[in-house]
Write a structure and sequence with these properties.
An 8-stranded parallel barrel has the order 1-2-3-4-5-6-7-8, surrounded by 5 helices. It contains 12 helices and 8 strands. By secondary structure, the protein is an alpha/beta fold. The structure holds 1,3-dihydroxyacetonephosphate. 1,3-dihydroxyacetonephosphate binds next to strand 8.
């Protein structure tokens, strides 16, 4: 983390977990144990049907609610899809774009780029996910792959809008596997992402962008991961479903930095 230049963000990704009633239970408990005072930005990205309940429960707090996906189009004949402006109207501040689980369902880099543009147009903050498979890591092409994903996702995003974007590095082999990247492995790629952004937008912008790590991050390993200079927060799956665990990760993000 480097709080001098950029925001620290702890974001939960609930994936396909919790009903609206369970959302209410979670938020009630979470609110009662949430750290007070100065702390990092906190986001909870929840299933679409849970958004109204999450927004209602967290109205008077500093927790931002987000969606897990959006459609690239503003409106039209796209049965079952949700547009970015609908999410904004429902009270969302964030939207996860290009999660590997969605890419596995067929979402391409071009789709990710179109969704990033749609989210920015609606003034949602996109949390753009990138990450390599174990096979790519073993082949030694992690950095090339990540460069390509970042460049595709940001294609055509103007300088004045780039600061609204958050990038999340999520190695696919670490998601839901309990196999976390070591702080060094995670830092190496997050630093690389910052270098890619520096080449595209310059040093000042690269320094200001928050880059998160995701993949089996939990209350035990968060402190060490967040102590890395280029890891500005976390995108947390499993551990964000349990209020006490999520709170402990937020507390780990409140550690002093250099
Ligand atoms: P886990 O924390 O459950 O590994 O999930 C990470 C993730 O995919 C967050 O988007």
């Amino acid at each position: 983390m480097n709080r001098k230049y950029r925001k620290t963000i702890i974001a939960g990704n609930w994936k396909m977990n919790k009903t609206p009633s369970e959302t209410k239970e979670f938020m009630t408990e979470f609110k009662s144990i949430m750290p007070k005072g100065r702390w990092c930005d906190v986001a909870l990205c929840v299933p679409a049907v849970c958004i109204p309940m999450a927004v209602r429960c967290m109205r008077e707090t500093r927790v931002g609610i987000g969606a897990e996906n959006c459609n690239a189009n503003a409106s039209g004949a796209y049965t079952g899809e949700i547009a970015a402006n609908m999410l904004v109207d429902a009270g969302c501040k964030y939207v996860i774009i290009g999660h590997s689980e969605r890419r596995a369902m067929g979402e391409t880099d071009a789709d990710v780029n179109a969704k990033v543009h749609a989210a920015l147009k609606a003034e949602l903050m996109p949390i753009v996910c990138v990450g390599e498979t174990l096979e790519q890591r073993d082949l030694g092409i992690t950095e090339d792959w990540i460069s390509m994903q970042v460049k595709c996702a940001l294609h055509g995003v103007p300088e004045e809008k780039i600061r609204k974007i958050v990038v999340a590095y999520e190695p696919i082999w670490a998601i839901g596997t309990g196999k976390t990247a070591t702080p060094e492995q995670a830092e190496e790629v997050c630093e690389h992402i910052r270098t890619v952004i520096r080449k595209l937008y310059g040093a000042k912008i690269a320094r200001a962008i928050s880059i998160l790590y995701g993949g089996s991050m939990n209350e035990k390993n968060a402190f060490e991961l967040l102590a890395q200079p280029d890891i500005d927060g976390g995108l947390i799956g499993g551990a964000s479903l349990v209020p006490e665990k999520f709170v402990q990760i937020i507390e780990a993000a409140n550690q002093p930095t250099v």
